[in-house]
Amino acid sequence: MKNRIITISREYGSGGHEIAQRVAQQLDLDFYDKELITLAAEESGIDAQLLETMEEQLAAAPLPDPENPSSPYTLEDRMFLAQSRVIQNLANREPCVIVGRAANHVLANRDDCLHFFVYAELDERIKRISGRLNVSPEEAEKKIQRTDKARAAYYKHYTGKEWGLAHNYTVSLDSGYLGIEGVVGAIRHRFQPEWKANKVGICG
Amino acid sequence: MKNRIITISREYGSGGHEIAQRVAQQLDLDFYDKELITLAAEESGIDAQLLETMEEQLAAAPLPDPENPSSPYTLEDRMFLAQSRVIQNLANREPCVIVGRAANHVLANRDDCLHFFVYAELDERIKRISGRLNVSPEEAEKKIQRTDKARAAYYKHYTGKEWGLAHNYTVSLDSGYLGIEGVVGAIRHRFQPEWKANKVGICG
What we know:
The structure is a homodimer. Chain A is α/β, with parallel strands linked by helices. Chain A contains ten helices and five strands. Chain A has helices spanning 16-27, 34-44, 48-56, 75-93, 103-106, 122-133, 137-159, 175-178, 180-190, 195-198; strands at residues 5-10, 30-32, 96-99, 113-119, 171-174. A five-stranded parallel β-sheet of chain A has the order 2-3-1-4-5, with helices on both faces. In chain A, helix 2 (34-44) crosses helix 4. The interface between A and B is medium-sized, with 31 and 31 residues. Strand 5 of chain A pairs antiparallel with strand 5 (171-174) of chain B, so a sheet runs across the interface.
């Protein structure tokens, strides 16, 4: 099966969003990130602004268990289900790059997807975030910890798995060590037709 | 700083040992795996056969905390310390490939090392182990679970970190998806002089 879809999960401040954008641009693929929320919202009728706000708050307020019949589906659960439908529809429609939203889990049963996890040491991420948001290193660190906590809680709640375990991805890459372009190159190179069928060396 | 050392951590049955051997052979580097135990044993005066047996039993019997003064160093603790010294000496001496023994943690403060984690889906590993040991898939699965449990417990006890978290490695690779040669190629390609300084693309 040819590779069609790239999913990228990333620690906050690892440059994963920029990496995904560059990969999509260089491979001429559609790119979905915040757009995904909007599409999900359109499908489920939930306001996009509200969905974003809620996602930030996930770590602070653990969600009820959607598997438990006594616990009705919450707005968050419906949001996740709507996003999952959107991700599946996008994957069926055309090759693309999808960032975040536990897309690796949503598409885990397909064999035409490559799943990447991008991360970096904390000091590298503090540098990037304090520069991007023009805040102190202390503020950047707090923001990183808050955001990663929210992402880990979201991932755990909806997939039952730990966020950041190598096993959940095809390849995991340290952007602090390899550099943004290094990670872009690694992902690009792996996205090639007949990759899985031939099992050739990554770099010849 | 040039890359000098490659460490490879691996799930049991992922082909990590074979991958490490091929990488060492193709890059003409020394290779340390069981030899490391022997070297550590020579240094600490502990019998090598005994050390191997003990490592298998680690998951069943959690070790006392070496940080706690009321808990004297056990034989296992002395083994770990001796192995760590050996790993550090090897890394100082010459470029090499080191498999297992939490070498990524022992050498975490050096900037001339590349740390890889190799893993695969359970069914791929069952296939490999039942073929290699000529046992039923059920027996292979039990052996895999027992060995991985021991490795995770060992890693957690001596590093304080979860085994298999992407963050502990430079790159993590799924050998079931990428194939043995694919992983060998990825590791080989990344082991190049001036890699870190230039932060060039991995595959051009």
